[in-house]
């Protein structure tokens, strides 16, 4: 099983790109799934991924990481989601029934959601050490979706989701929140150090989809791995 994890600011096109990638893979005859499809089918079965000493240690570290924003229902939900997700991936990387499993919101995205509006610092270190193993696998691909700040603001305001914390009246404040989110994602990535990490220009959704298909279709030895990458917002 190959895993495709998309990360990036809200409104950068992760969900749209993910759907297009899955449609393309399915047309090619692959068993390709969005994690939410699997999660819905096996929600009760997945509870077992909360059992065990390592799971409880991970869960406790996630809660501790998020506690800087105060104890709340969202913190507990996302801490459990991340624990389930990490253990599900570890348990299913050798699953021959699934060719591709895609996350338009995965571990990286959830961790930055836990931090809410604060800047993530070295407190991420205990967590990054526990989850790094998943990202060292040759079949795990991470795509960081990069979008121009002006276009990002436009997309956020166009979709206008109820309760979206990035929808604010002050444009400068909105840009500030988006830049902080982007910086947090980049910081987490530098700590986790995915073995197969790619930057993706999501201004052009069609080419973004094609780029992902091209990368995951190549032989591992011939893939161009971007060890160094820069994500820049133009203010």
The total domain count is 1
Low-pLDDT ranges: 219-235
Beta strand count: 5
Taken from the alpha-carbon principal axes, the silhouette is globular
SSE pattern, N- to C-terminal: EHEHHHEHHEHHEH
**The CATH superfamily title:** P-loop containing nucleotide triphosphate hydrolases
Reported CATH architecture: 3-Layer(aba) Sandwich
Strand order of the largest sheet: 2-3-1-4-5
CATH T-level fold name: Rossmann fold
Proportion in helices: 40-55%
Walk me through the structure.
The chain is an alpha/beta fold and 235 residues long. It has one domain: Rossmann fold (3-Layer(aba) Sandwich), CATH 3.40.50. It is 51% helix and 11% strand. Strands 2-3-1-4-5 form a five-stranded parallel beta sheet, sandwiched between helices. The longest helix has 22 residues. The radius of gyration is 17 Å and the shape is globular. The C terminus is likely disordered.
């Amino acid at each position: 099983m190959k895993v495709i994890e998309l990360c990036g600011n809200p409104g950068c096109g992760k969900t749209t790109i993910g759907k297009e990638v899955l449609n393309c893979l399915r047309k090619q005859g692959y068993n390709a799934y969005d994690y939410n499809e699997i999660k819905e089918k096996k929600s009760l079965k997945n509870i077992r991924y909360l059992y065990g000493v390592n799971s409880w240690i991970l869960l406790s570290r996630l809660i501790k990481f998020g506690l800087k924003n105060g104890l709340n229902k969202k913190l507990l939900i996302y801490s459990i989601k991340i624990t389930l997700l990490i253990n599900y991936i570890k348990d299913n990387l050798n699953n021959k029934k699934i060719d591709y499993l895609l996350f338009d919101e995965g571990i990286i995205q959830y961790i930055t959601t836990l931090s809410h509006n604060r800047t993530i610092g070295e407190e991420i270190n205990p967590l990054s050490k526990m989850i790094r193993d998943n990202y060292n696998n040759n079949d795990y691909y991470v795509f960081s979706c990069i979008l121009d700040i002006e276009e990002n603001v436009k997309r956020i305001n166009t979709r206008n989701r109820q309760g979206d914390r990035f929808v604010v009246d002050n444009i400068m404040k909105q840009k500030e929140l988006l830049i902080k989110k982007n910086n947090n994602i980049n910081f987490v990535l530098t700590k986790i150090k995915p073995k197969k990490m790619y930057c993706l220009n999501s201004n052009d959704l069609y080419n973004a989809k094609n780029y992902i298909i091209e990368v995951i279709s190549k032989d591992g030895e011939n893939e161009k791995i971007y060890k160094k990458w820069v994500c820049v917002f133009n203010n």
